[in-house]
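User: I'm curious what two different proteins look like when written out as structure tokens. Can you demonstrate?

Assistant: Sure. I'll show them one after the other, since each token string lines up with its own sequence. Here's the first protein:
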Amino acid sequence: MKPLTHHVPRGPFHPIRPSRALVALALGSVLVTSACGQGTPSPGGATPAGGDGSSAPASGAADTDTGAGAGGETVTPGGVHLEATMAPGGPEVGATGATGAGIAASPGLVVDYTVTNTGTKPVLAYDVVPADLGSATLPADVDAKHAWVYEESGVLRLSKQGFAPGPNVRFAAAPVMGGHTIAPGASITGKAYAVSPPTLDVPGDSFEAPRTPVDPAVKQWQFCVQVSDRAGQARPSAVGGGVVEAASTAPQGDELVCTPPSTIPVA
């Protein structure tokens, strides 16, 4: 089946509306969005994000024949191409040491994503999200699959992004998020997870974040990741595996890259 194509904006907390009907799937859903910079270098190989994704060739194509689901694309000056699929998943087969949270411990919805830098300069993808914001260092045992989960305009959003501090909130040291620096033409892959039925998962009251509970009957989903040109401000992290850390900031301009909404798959 050929993927559908949507032209959608990129930016913080903006609802993304499809231009045509999306396709309900029995097992999974596929979404594609891209942003084209001034040039598109020859793509390199994909790097697993935090060791949780599988390597795959980077793709500079905006329209991909996936054989299932619905696809879309967006063009902005950011130079980022995002692909994401969702399927029911968890607990992980053979997982040990489950802590009572995350895909290893309970069933839910799993997004597999690939972020490709189609521009000419390195970018920073904030795709390693701590369980809560506030610490000036990234925990060494951070779950690279963790994502914020909230509802935006009737759409379930799994998002890897920062949030602004609340009014009159001051931190002795800037809270950090983890991520990956992506060189021009390179890609990273990773996963994001939400329990099923989905529930609200956002930072605490020290940050400006959505507070409305997620409707457990929500029908559509999208995946978002914050990508900025502040790669030079990142520093190595104790997590290892190529993970860096940088001060958490709310997405500015078109930094929040989101796939178009699509029907949540069922098992």
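Here's a second, unrelated protein for contrast:
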Amino acid sequence: MSKDHVLQLRYLGVIPQAGFVEYGFRIENKDKSTRQVILTIADGFFLNSDLKAQEAPDLCYQKVLMDLDVATTDSCSSFSMPVTALDIARYRDLHPNTKLRKHLQRNRISTGSVPPIKDLPPFAAHPPFSE
């Protein structure tokens, strides 16, 4: 099924399971048919710091988008697929800023260039958020 046939891709949420986490998506096609896609990520990827919990929904969303280009039209209304180490590596290649931020953060902390908390301005000194 190509992206041309998809009207809407909606993130449904996350469901922790024993040993893995599920991320759900609903695909609505232009003909109003729907499919549910569940991506699973093994807990080991989070425990080994290969992936942050905050990154997982975006990684899954990007994987679903990529798979829409190569997927074939079928009558399956729901299916599940695992996120692999290769998927995480591709995500890292497409999001190099994450690596760069980690590297810069480590360097600032190790060189002591992060200002001490007492040198930071008080919260009240910052202007309120504008709408």
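A detail about the second structure: DSSP finds four helices and four strands in the chain.
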